[in-house]
Amino acid sequence: MKRNIFIISSLFFALAVQLKADNTPFFKKDELVVVKKKKNILAKPDEAEKQSKQVIKLNLSQLPLTNVSLQYEYGFHKNMSGAIGFSFFFPRTLPSIFFDPSSNVDGYTLPKFSAFSITPEFRFYPGEKVEHQAPHGFYLAPYFRYSKYTLKASYIDYYNNNVNAWEYDASISYSGFTAGLMIGSQWIISKHFSIDWWILGGGAGTSKIDIRAKETTGNLHMSAQEQLNLTNDIQTNLNELGRFSNGAVNITVTDNSFRTVVKGIPMTSFRGFGLNLGFAF
User: Fold this and answer.
1) Which CA distances in Å does 26 have to 21, 31, 33?
2) How confident is the model at residue 102, as a pLDDT?
3) Spatial contact of 147 and 176, defined as CB atoms under 8 Å apart
4) How many CB atoms lie within 10 A of CB 275?
5) DSSP SS3 for 227
6) Which helix (H) or strand (E) holds 238?
7) How many C-beta neighbours within 10 Å does residue 104 have?
8) pLDDT above 60: residue 266
9) Residue 184 vs residues 141, 160, 199, 279: alpha-carbon distances, Å
10) In angstroms, rounded to a whole number, what is the distance separating the alpha carbons of residues 135 and 194?
11) Which among 44, 173, 247, 271 could bridge 201 via Cys, Cβ 3.0 to 4.6 Å?
12) Residue 109 pLDDT greater than 90, yes or no
């Protein structure tokens, strides 16, 4: 009896092993095995990593010239963005290489130079932009710029054997608009860090020169003839400047001041070799 029970138990064991072997998966050599991962119920389908679309930048290349140049850029399309830049050259006296006040008994004293510009631009980032979108990558940037450069100074004119003097507030400004094209490349690094390289660009446009002077002590009262003579002198000097005289000239003279505006003067702008460090968000 014991022998029969042992034989029946052995048969059941052998049958169980065979059934288990038949249900064991069999993989051929080098066959691709796909393992399904559990889906994250909190994740959105096909959710891509968010890229910064806005950048605020500081032009490091202008800092040695004590010129503050800032730009804001916004990417509104995977291939396009808009930007606006502001540049400020705060008033400072001219270096002695250009002007040495100690060598002048009269004439201009302590001239100060200042400048600013506003530059809106459109940027096109070519390519399919699968991994990175604007404002990241190589770009073409048509731009429009308004610039103004101003030189202000006092002017002293001695008379009566240097006993008396006329003192003037004088200024000359050069301002205008240019349009041009620039190429560059920008990298958005670690989401919140940007490097923008202005490779090369330039533009052309038109401008005007505005020259003013006014006597401030109240000692100057020019007659009508003296005003006419001054007007003719200014016109003669403008004619000697050649191309300036081709523009529209407007001369205004009073008994203690004058103003001359020359329009239609060519103006150029240059952009390039600029390195900008930015914060992206």
Assistant:
1) 10, 10, 11
2) 57
3) yes
4) 14
5) helix
6) helix 224-240
7) 11
8) yes
9) 8, 61, 5, 18
10) 10
11) 271
12) no
- Which phi and psi (to 5°) does residue 91 adopt? -55, 135
The C-alpha atoms of residue 87 and residue 71 are separated, in whole angstroms, by: 9
The structure tokens listed for 123 are 């940027």
DSSP 185: E
84 contacts 123 by C-beta, under 8 angstroms:
no
Over range 271-279, report the average pLDDT: 95
Scored b (16 or more CB within 10 A) or e, 118-128 reads ebebebebeee
How far, in Å, CA of 258 to CA of 52, rounded?
A: 53
Burial class (CB in 10 A: 0-12, 13-18, 19+), 213: middle
Which of 265, 153, 252 is closest to 206 using CA atoms?
265
Identity at 83, one-letter amino acid code: A
φ/ψ of 18, rounded to 5, equals: -65, -45
Q: What is the pLDDT of residues 113-155, one digit of tens each?
A: 999 999 999 999 999 998 899 999 999 999 999 999 999 988 8
Tokens read off for 164: 């008396």
Rounded Cα distance, 100 and 109, in Å: 9
> 245 by DSSP, 3-state: which?
helix
Helix (H) or strand (E) holding 154: strand 137-159
Which carries the bigger pLDDT value, residue 241 or residue 270?
Answer: 270
Residue 116 pLDDT: 96
Instruction: Convert the pLDDT of each residue in 1-52 to its tens digit.
Output: 444 444 444 444 444 444 444 444 444 445 454 444 444 444 444 434 678 9
Q: Report DSSP state, residue 134.
A: T
- Over residues 255-265, the mean pLDDT reads 93
Quick count: other Cβ atoms within 10 Å of Cβ 83?
21
